């Protein structure tokens, strides 16, 4: 299989890296975090000019028709610089839902505005107590006099405090954990019955708790058929955050190597200590393994077999989560006390890796999922079916 980048991908990668190198230093990032929404609207507008915000959308919808590998390159670059702008929630998550389920009118109304940086979408799906179960939806949508309304609470809505439009999951039928009966809806953030409370995560990412009280909603696609779209959105999130985690690990490793070479103790660099060299080498092994898994995630996005795609992405999430935790811990420990300070970036990279692990199911969740799927054929064999186990 050819993993070389084509000319368009090389141009995209170099353009994004050059832009971030000139506009997204660690000190500038700290200033962006202090701005009203916790990110820079000026940088967001420049992302639009670069064509990054329209990358995954079809040309007919105002985008550039980029492939999954191009998105992987962008997310890696964002990870290296700890980019805080709402690309993941607006373009990847809510954007995937809209381009997958939206009508032609809905796509033409919103996707060009998203690509131009004029409208910010937010994916509002997680609920209190749901943990990582994507079908645990208790927010309800009801239709009365030809108008849909939503009631319920959504939590951890990325950049939900500054979004213009929410893509909301809500139940139109069935019980709280029923895979059937879930619909997706568009809700204007300024609509009556919508209240939001900003919540900051440990890595300074802004999220929000959103309460809907008979808020007017517009169905996205066919009501009660949202479960498949939620799965697609979750898969897109896993693929994107896997690539971002690689970028974060790459920079954390580079910062650690630089420190080991420059920090002097007893008249020589501490990196001359063989034990520390071994730990840096183990970090590199974890990084390169994670890079391979991010590539696997990108390839799996085109896998038609849903069960196999789920298994591949669960493996990706489990391994990258474990490796990210290892790389982050080693980076902080090898820096000593300085690694814990707010003024030095390495601790911020560790925090981002911790948050990324929790998104869309942490490594423990996906290991348990793999274990259950591995045991299913064994149970079938006990009942008389032939064994057909696949490895973890």
Domain count: 3
What percentage of the residues does DSSP assign to strands (E)? Answer: 15-25%
Mean pLDDT across every amino acid position: 91
What is the H/E string? HHHHHHEEEEEEEHEEHHHH
Structure, explained:
This protein has 11 helices and 9 strands. By secondary structure, the chain is an alpha+beta fold. It has 3 domains: 7-119, Acyl-CoA dehydrogenase/oxidase, N-terminal domain (Butyryl-Coa Dehydrogenase, subunit A, domain 1); 122-224, Beta Barrel (Butyryl-CoA Dehydrogenase, subunit A, domain 2), CATH 2.40.110.10; 228-382, Up-down Bundle (Butyryl-CoA Dehydrogenase, subunit A, domain 3), CATH 1.20.140. Strands 1, 2, 3, 4, 5, 6 and 7 form a 7-stranded mixed sheet that branches. Strands 8-9 form a two-stranded antiparallel ribbon. Helix 5 (87-101) packs antiparallel against helix 7, helix 7 runs antiparallel to helix 10 and helix 9 (306-335) packs antiparallel against helix 10.
Pick out its properties.
Butyryl-Coa Dehydrogenase, subunit A, domain 1, Butyryl-CoA Dehydrogenase, subunit A, domain 2, Butyryl-CoA Dehydrogenase, subunit A, domain 3, 52% helix, globular
């Amino acid at each position: 299989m050819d993993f070389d980048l084509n000319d368009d991908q090389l141009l995209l990668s170099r353009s994004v890296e050059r832009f971030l190198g000139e506009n997204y230093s660690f000190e500038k990032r700290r200033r962006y975090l202090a701005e009203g929404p916790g990110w820079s609207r000026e940088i967001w507008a420049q992302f639009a000019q670069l064509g990054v915000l329209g990358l995954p959308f079809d040309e007919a919808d105002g985008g550039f028709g980029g492939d999954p590998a191009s998105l992987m390159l962008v997310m890696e670059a964002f990870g290296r610089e700890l980019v805080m702008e709402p690309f993941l929630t607006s373009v990847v998550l809510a954007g995937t839902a809209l381009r997958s389920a939206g009508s032609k009118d809905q796509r033409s109304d919103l996707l060009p505005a998203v690509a131009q940086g004029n409208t910010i979408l937010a994916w509002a799906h997680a609920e209190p107590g749901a943990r990582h179960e994507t079908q645990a939806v208790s927010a309800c949508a009801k239709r009365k006099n030809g108008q849909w309304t939503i009631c319920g609470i959504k939590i951890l809505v990325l950049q939900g405090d500054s979004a213009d439009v929410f893509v909301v999951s809500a139940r139109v039928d069935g019980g709280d954990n029923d895979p059937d009966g879930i619909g997706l809806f568009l809700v204007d953030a300024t609509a009556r019955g919508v209240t939001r409370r900003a919540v900051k995560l440990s890595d300074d990412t802004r999220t929000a708790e959103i309460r809907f009280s008979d808020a007017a909603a517009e169905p996205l696609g066919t009501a009660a058929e949202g479960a498949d779209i939620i799965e697609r959105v979750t898969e897109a999130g896993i693929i994107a955050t896997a690539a971002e985690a690689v970028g974060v690990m790459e920079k954390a490793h580079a910062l650690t190597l630089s420190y080991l070479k420059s920090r002097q103790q007893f008249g020589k660099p501490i990196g001359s200590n063989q034990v520390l060299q071994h730990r840096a080498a183990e970090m590199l092994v974890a990084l390169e393994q994670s890079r391979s898994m991010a590539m696997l995630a990108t390839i799996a996005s085109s896998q038609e077999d849903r069960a196999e795609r789920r298994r591949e992405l669960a493996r990706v999430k489990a391994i990258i989560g474990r490796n990210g935790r290892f790389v982050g811990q080693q980076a902080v420990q090898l820096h000593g006390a300085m690694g814990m300070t707010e003024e030095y970036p390495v601790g911020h990279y560790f925090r981002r890796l911790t948050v990324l692990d929790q998104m869309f199911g942490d490594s423990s969740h996906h290991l348990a999922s793999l274990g259950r799927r591995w045991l299913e054929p064994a149970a079938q064999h006990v009942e008389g079916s032939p064994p057909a186990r696949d490895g973890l």
